[in-house]
């Protein structure tokens, strides 16, 4: 066992019938850590959470807690509690009975249950609501009762399956903060499943980004946001603008070859691990700058494209523009709005550009439009 590991998932494979959903997955979580499983719908987040909880049996691999193999243990003997997206409260039971439900199953005495329920109600700000039925609670209160029921049994690991998705946007922000603060206060190890990037980043110490049953990248919110390891992660973390560029590496500089709508650029290579050749470039709308077509030339280290405004919409704080650059539509934010149809330049500082090598093109296959002016032989030699 890894010294730091509290929850250890090794070589975990899970399938439903012939469909393999998780494929040799490895994940280690420290005691007291809050981890978010983030990914698109269907990538296997819930399956992983339910395998850890003991509700789904893996075809291969192991789940261990504090060095003990729990893979074959039933869910109620793993020291874990799962909060469901739907809350799954008993509608006919009061708040107090719902919170005490797990304790009753453990056959604890009435006095012990009452004391623990009162503690949990105080912890979650549910005092005075103990006699109410779930139907007489707000969404946020129901969510807290579900959380209370999970915490009442004093689990070692708290598992949260999209716990905020039934709440409206404003309450969501509040409850997100409450759960984060509570997790830190209790020092409990927790895993949350979400497809909301901001939620994952705001709540978790570590974000695990999943793609088709595998971990695409994991790291602190700052790492996965600012240093995405692949074009997939960059796109998932909001760098939705994509371009194909040709770059040549020489002496610590990345020379971007001029294209039909840009003059190329010389960018510091920084820590990027790139080879000369065609690249996928990704950037966020808020990383770009829009300037009038007659604005002075960009400073060194910026890449600039010319295009025209397709649409402009106010998002609050900034205007988001769709800019037509050749065959591509790119999004860029600006403090003011540009008129639809106006010719503009779209600038991206080199350090805001995420770049990933594309496979070298096969001889004879057409190159993407932005790099079509590079002879194929040169591309092949360079890579
Ligand atoms: N009980 C099941 N039987 C068959 N296939 C299933 C079952 N549960 C999930 N799947 C399939 O397994 C894949 C992963 O599902 P899972 O619920 O783990 O994804 P997810 O990332 O949590 O998605 P979402 O964000 O939509 O909840 C999906 O293709 C889904 O259709």
From TrEMBL:
Keyword S-adenosyl-L-methionine carried by entry: no
Pfam families for this protein: ABC_tran (PF00005), TOBE_2 (PF08402)
UniProt-recorded Gene Ontology molecular function terms: ATP binding; ATP hydrolysis activity; transmembrane transporter activity
One term under GO cellular component: ATP-binding cassette (ABC) transporter complex
Domain ABC transporter residues, every copy: 7-237
One BP term from GO: quaternary ammonium group transport
InterPro entries: AAA+_ATPase, ABC_SmlMolc_Importer, ABC_transporter-like_ATP-bd, ABC_transporter-like_CS, Mo/tungstate-bd_C_term_dom, P-loop_NTPase, Transp-assoc_OB_typ2
Keywords: ATP-binding, Nucleotide-binding, Transport
Similarity-based family: Belongs to the ABC transporter superfamily.
Name of this protein: ABC transporter domain-containing protein
């Amino acid at each position: 066992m890894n010294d730091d590991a509290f929850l250890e998932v090794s070589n975990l494979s899970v399938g439903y019938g012939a469909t393999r959903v998780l494929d040799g997955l490895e994940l280690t979580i420290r005691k007291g850590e809050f981890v978010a499983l983030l990914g698109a719908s269907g990538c296997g987040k819930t399956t992983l959470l339910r395998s850890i909880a003991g509700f789904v049996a893996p075809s291969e691999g192991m789940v261990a807690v504090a060095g003990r193999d729990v893979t074959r243990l039933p869910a109620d003997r793993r020291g874990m509690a799962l909060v469901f997206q739907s809350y799954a409260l008993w509608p006919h039971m009061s708040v107090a009975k719902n919170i005490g439900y797990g304790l009753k199953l453990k056959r604890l005495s009435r006095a012990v249950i009452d004391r623990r329920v009162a503690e949990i109600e105080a912890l979650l700000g549910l005092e005075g609501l103990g006699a109410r039925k779930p139907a007489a609670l707000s969404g946020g209160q129901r969510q807290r009762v579900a959380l209370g029921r999970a915490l009442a049994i004093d689990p070692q690991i708290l598992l949260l399956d999209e716990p905020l998705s039934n709440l409206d946007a404003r309450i969501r922000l509040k409850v997100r903060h409450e759960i984060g603060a509570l997790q830190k206060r209790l020092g409990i190890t927790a895993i949350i499943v979400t497809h909301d990037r901001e939620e994952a980043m705001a709540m978790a110490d570590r974000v695990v980004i999943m793609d088709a049953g595998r971990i695409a990248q994991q790291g602190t919110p700052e790492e996965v946001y600012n240093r995405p390891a692949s074009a997939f992660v960059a796109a998932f973390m909001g760098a939705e603008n994509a371009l194909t560029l040709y770059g040549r590496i020489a002496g610590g500089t990345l020379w971007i070859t001029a294209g039909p709508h840009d003059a190329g650029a010389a960018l510091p290579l920084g820590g990027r691990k790139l080879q000369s050749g065609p690249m996928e470039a990704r950037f966020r709308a808020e990383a770009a700058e829009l300037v009038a077509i007659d604005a002075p030339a960009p400073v060194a280290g910026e890449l600039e494209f010319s295009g025209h405004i397709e649409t402009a919409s106010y998002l609050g704080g900034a205007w988001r523009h769709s800019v037509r650059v050749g065959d591509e539509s790119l999004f860029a934010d600006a403090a003011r709005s540009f008129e639809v149809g106006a010719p503009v330049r779209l600038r991206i500082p080199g350090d805001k550009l995420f770049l990933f090598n594309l496979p070298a093109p096969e001889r004879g296959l057409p190159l993407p439009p932005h790099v079509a002016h590079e002879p194929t032989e040169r591309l092949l030699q360079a890579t």
